[in-house]
Amino acid sequence: MANCNKLFLDFNDELKITSSKIEKMKKARENIKNKIIDHFKQKAKYDFIGTYMQGSYRTKTVIRTKDDVCDLDLGIYFKKIDTEVSTAAVLDQVYKAVEDVTSIQPSKKSKCVRVYYKGDFHIDLPVYHFNKEEHDHPQLANRYNGWEESDPKDFTKWFNKHENLKQLKRITRYLKAWSNNTEGKYPSGLAFTIWTCNKLTTNERDDIALYELLKEIKSSIESSWYVEMPVVPYDDVCSKLTDQQKDNFLDAISDFIEDADRALKSKNQLEASEIWQKYFGDRFPDGADEDIDAKEVALNRIAANIMSSTAYTQKDGSITENVDGVKNKPHRNFGG
Hints:
One of its GO terms (molecular function) is 3',3'-cyclic GMP-AMP synthase activity. By secondary structure, the chain is α+β, with helices and mostly antiparallel strands. It contains eleven helices and eleven strands. Helix content is 46%, strand content 15%. The strands form two sheets. Strands 1, 2, 3, 4, 5, 6, 7 and 8 form an eight-stranded mixed sheet that branches.
């Protein structure tokens, strides 16, 4: 089998947000917060209490897309909002607060206001009403359907309880990168995150772990497309996908599983990496044009010879068990 675990780890690093972009996002967050404070400080019907960076940024599964952009969720929280104020009015007030924060006009979504930072990222601003004395969970403003119970912090807590958090984050990023590299509508990043949390089987190799997860996801959606949010509001996060979109994704994941199996069975790492690149794009690194597993076996055999004092150095510099060479001195360095 072509072991591509190191290539996946390198790919994971490629998907991470750069330090310079993180600094830009921090400045953008503070700027937006200050705009919100200034806008609402004279409005008696509102009691702004702060912002909360949530979603994939909080779970550390956000990725840089192939166009080198990313998206963030910054929750806007109010302790008090007069009952006479509609959710649409609340969202419109937040829009007014940030409409000149960049040179690009923000957009009004059903559950947030979106602020654009051209060529870098965009920040979604969902709005919450949360008074602990009145609510068990935050109330999210839906422009068309009023207030809906939603708790991003509870989702982060649920996510962070996974037994293998590091691999969970990497595998989630790979699935998002696959979606980003593909044309057409795929399940949301939230759906991929929930699937990964619920169905990931830990493996020392990310390529194998991903392959096994893909099979689990396919098996699951062949039975039911219902993917429940694990915290309030406990809704189906795939409910908006059309039947055609579901069929297209089922075909896509079936192809991915078949090719992932070929990649794992390949003896040549370069050949295997070219298969993975079909799904992840050219940001996935090229492998070595050799049988990596055979090379590892050979190196382990040499190491065993050295440790057992049966190693001989040949004229070409190679170390073997061939007694025609020069016998190596006993190895006594055991680390520490």
